[in-house]
Amino acid sequence: MALREPVAAYNAANNMEAHAVRDILIDSGVEAFVTEDVSVVGGWVGGLVPEIHKPQVWIERANAERAKPILDEYERRLIERRTASSEGATAETTIGVVCEKCNTRTCFPESQRGSVQDCPQCGAYLDVGDEEASEYWLEGHAEAETDGAK
Fold this sequence. Notes:
Alpha-Beta Plaits, alpha+beta, elongated, disordered C terminus, about 150 residues, single chain, 4 helices, two-stranded antiparallel sheet
């Protein structure tokens, strides 16, 4: 069924999270739909422009009050999981990597040192454990290179 009075109930970090939130709402009896981030219109040299294209979960305005406690519980659990994973991680067990494309800092397990992984933000390749590259980008050289390319 199509929504008559749609409202964006949740702005997700990525398409997968949007679908997970939609599924939680549907399982709770709230009809929900997802708009995915599939456009390259908001793309530029450094990645996607924030807030132009974002995955969202849409519901009927009449279901907003029913959806609010479900979404609040989802976010509470999300924060708990992030807190638990950050408390369990130490500097000795994780490696911080800064993406050369979008400057997002990501942590990987020590066991992935020397491997190539995907940036969770933009999908670019990351060399895990390449401290020289990470420090280079953390010091702000990315902006200097971008300015020099103009």
